[in-house]
């Protein structure tokens, strides 16, 4: 089966020297390019678009059936048996779904007010747990500082034993959105359950890279709540997804209420639907996005999830290997840990904001920099470097800007549409930038927030859109 096609691989942008270059997209960890099948499915669906929950007219029939099909495909895509798990569409991404679970579990298991959260989380899998009045204890990672690895299973087990009967749940990401380091989620599930805690896994960075098998032969190894965003799986405009065990959802309150999730409503009372996903799906879900996402999942499944895993993992290995041979480069995270999807690095002679700007402005390479909504994790890896900063020659009013310019990293992420020539081009560009840094630097002014602005070149977004 052929690799799915993607939209925007031939997009060209004018760059600072007046050339027009084909953009190389290496920012898929934020949002990858769209799969063509997502667009085709939306186009095919639009003439039949209707709200769901009815079979009375033909469009409603098509939409209702297609959404049920999409839910089934979604469960299959993550290897979740439908007698145990349900799939719920939530808001625009993973953030809404994680907030939903944090709220529900805090209500359902309020006698347990400790939550264990890994020290490498995106804010989306950290702040919602703090917000529910829980005491959050951070699970240490293996290694130290810039060389931290995955969740430290020995430390986790100690925390689980020490706070037994007080821990509501453990929350970890399957893959870090900063370092691409992969956590051993099956082992984490086993440990959490052994100590009567539940497990929430943020799969936002795993879903496009690793084959997921939620249903296991031993249920004590199963993840209770698995969450991801459709836009991270080549489907912009698609919903967030919560895959949850139905038995747990039944014990949880805190869902959004409204039409669709209730069976009987009087002026004084209401009854929730008994069936999933309806009981959890109030209001009109993102029908179009959910169906497009399922079509993408089907295409990826047909191409082969193992092929995808291998392709992305090999490119990351190649990237790490080439980048680490360059002078002045530090790649964050334990070098022996398993990684996929993304890596973060710094060049000791070039601030993260400047390097990211030059890559875009002179090479049309799209990467991301700063702290990637994972400030505590990024800070913990940069701590030593920031401590070593010599602020003696910096005037007090420039101090914060100087620190901001150093507090961050550059992240390269790999998607299914990237290939070895993208990596070669990136590495050659970094080599050239290193040699010509003084020349490039003259064209930029540094901003108080740590970013760098080109003095004479800027992109006019309206030139690119018919708006
Ligand atoms: C690991 C991780 N979790 C959660 C999120 C939040 O996803 P969304 O913005 O789609 O809600 C992101 C987004 O980058 C992420 O990388």
3D structure, described in words:
It is a single chain. The protein has 467 residues and is of the alpha/beta class. It folds into two domains: 6-29 and 304-464, Aspartate Aminotransferase, domain 1 (Alpha-Beta Complex); 39-302, Aspartate Aminotransferase, domain 2 (3-Layer(aba) Sandwich), CATH 3.40.640. Helix content is 36%, strand content 18%. It has helices at residues 36-45, 58-77, 94-108, 127-131, 153-162, 185-194, 246-251, 287-303, 305-324, 352-363, 375-387, 396-406, 420-435, 437-441, and strands spanning 6-7, 12-14, 20-22, 24-25, 34-35, 85-90, 114-118, 135-139, 167-173, 198-202, 225-229, 240-245, 262-265, 270-272, 329-331, 342-347, 365-366, 368-370, 409-413, 444-446, 452-454. It has a seven-stranded mixed beta sheet with strand order 6-12-11-10-9-7-8, sandwiched between helices. The chain has a four-stranded antiparallel beta sheet with strand order 15-16-19-18. Strands 1-5 form a two-stranded antiparallel sheet. Strand 9 (167-173), helix 6 and strand 10 (198-202) form a beta-alpha-beta unit. The longest helix is centred in the N-terminal third of the chain and has 20 residues, at 58-77. The protein is globular. The two termini are 38 Å apart. Residues 30, 93-95, 122, 124-125, 173, 177, 202, 204-205, 229, 231, 240 line the site of pyridoxal-5'-phosphate.
């Amino acid at each position: 089966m052929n690799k799915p096609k993607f939209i925007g691989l031939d997009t060209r942008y004018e760059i600072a020297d007046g050339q027009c270059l084909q953009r190389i997209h290496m920012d898929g960890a934020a949002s990858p390019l769209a799969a063509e099948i997502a667009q085709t499915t939306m186009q095919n669906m639009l003439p039949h678009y209707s709200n769901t929950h009815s079979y009375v007219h033909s469009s409603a029939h098509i939409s209702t059936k297609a959404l049920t099909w999409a839910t089934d495909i979604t469960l299959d895509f993550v290897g979740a048996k439908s007698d145990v798990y349900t799939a719920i569409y939530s808001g625009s991404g993973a953030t809404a779904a994680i907030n939903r679970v944090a709220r529900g579990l805090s209500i359902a298991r309020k006698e347990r007010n400790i939550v264990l959260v890994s020290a490498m989380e995106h804010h989306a899998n950290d702040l919602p747990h703090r917000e529910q009045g829980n005491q959050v204890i951070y699970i240490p990672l293996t290694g130290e500082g810039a060389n931290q690895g995955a969740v430290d299973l020995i430390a986790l087990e100690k925390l689980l034993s020490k706070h037994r009967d007080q821990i509501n749940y453990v929350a970890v990401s399957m893959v870090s959105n900063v370092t691409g380091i992969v956590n051993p989620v099956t082992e984490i599930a086993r440990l959490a359950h052994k100590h009567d805690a539940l497990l929430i896994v943020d799969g936002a960075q795993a879903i496009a890279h690793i084959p997921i098998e939620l249903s296991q032969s031993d249920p004590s190894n199963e993840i209770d709540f698995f969450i991801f965003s459709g836009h991270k799986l080549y489907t912009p405009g698609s919903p967030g997804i919560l895959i949850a065990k139905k038995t747990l959802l039944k014990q949880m309150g805190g869902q959004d209420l409204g039409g669709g999730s209730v069976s009987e409503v009087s002026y004084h009372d209401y009854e929730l639907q008994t069936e999933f996903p309806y009981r959890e799906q109030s209001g009109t879900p993102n029908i179009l996005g959910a169906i497009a996402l399922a079509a993408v999942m089907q295409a990826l499944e047909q191409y082969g999830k193992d092929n995808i895993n291998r392709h992305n993992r090999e490119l990351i290995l190649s990237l790490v290997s080439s980048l680490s041979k360059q002078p002045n480069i530090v790649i964050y995270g334990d070098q022996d840990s398993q990684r996929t999807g993304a890596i973060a690095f710094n060049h000791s002679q070039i601030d993260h904001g400047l390097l990211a700007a030059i890559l875009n402005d002179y090479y049309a390479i799209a990467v991301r920099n700063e702290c990637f909504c994972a400030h505590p994790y990024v800070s913990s890896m940069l701590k030593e470097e920031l401590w070593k900063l010599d602020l003696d020659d910096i005037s007090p009013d420039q101090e914060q800007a100087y620190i901001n310019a150093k507090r961050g990293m550059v992240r390269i992420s790999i998607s299914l549409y990237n290939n070895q020539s993208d990596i070669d081009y990136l590495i050659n560009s970094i080599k050239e930038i290193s040699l010509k840094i003084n020349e490039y630097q003259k064209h930029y002014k540094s901003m108080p927030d740590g970013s760098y602005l080109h003095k004479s070149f800027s992109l006019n977004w309206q030139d690119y859109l018919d708006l």
